[in-house]
Design brief:
The protein contains 4 helices and no strands. It is mainly alpha-helical and 143 residues long. Helix 2 packs antiparallel against helix 3.
């Protein structure tokens, strides 16, 4: 159940961040050239976010065993590279970029959203820990 919650939460969080970045780009850059997005772009962003969230759960959230610090660092680097490959593949197939300059722009958005997702996920986990801690404290107070 925890993995499903992480998948849904990260999909929503990452999709929101990317759609905000794309909207800002569209407002300030594309508007003056009268460019427009294709109809399927927002949906492809959500599907790409879902695919990345599934990979994240499979690669980083293994509750079965303890991880060493080195193992965590290697998994995180592998995670970064694998998700970058997924994003660039979706970008190529769905025409998020059509030139080297567009690919660089998608890469910059990816790095910003990647680190934003780490920060957002840590905030989510801290909130869940606080809720659990408060519930345990209220149970202890009743006893």
């Amino acid at each position: 159940m925890k993995k499903i919650k992480v998948i849904i939460g990260q999909t929503m969080m990452v999709s929101f961040m990317v759609l905000c970045a794309v909207s800002i780009y569209g407002l300030f850059v594309m508007r003056k050239y009268e460019w427009a997005f294709d109809w399927y772009i927002p949906g492809s962003i959500v599907v790409a976010s879902f695919a990345c969230s599934v990979v994240t759960c499979l690669l980083l959230y293994n509750d079965g065993y303890a991880q060493s610090r080195l193992s965590f660092v290697v998994r995180t680097i592998l995670h970064f590279i694998l998700l970058y490959g997924i994003i660039m593949a979706f970008g190529h197939v769905c025409y998020w970029y059509r030139s080297l300059r567009g690919g660089i722009f998608v890469s910059i958005i990816y790095v910003v959203v990647y680190f934003g997702a780490w920060i957002g996920t840590s905030i989510m986990f801290r909130h869940d820990e606080k809720v659990i801690s408060d519930a345990l404290d209220s149970v202890r107070d009743k006893e």
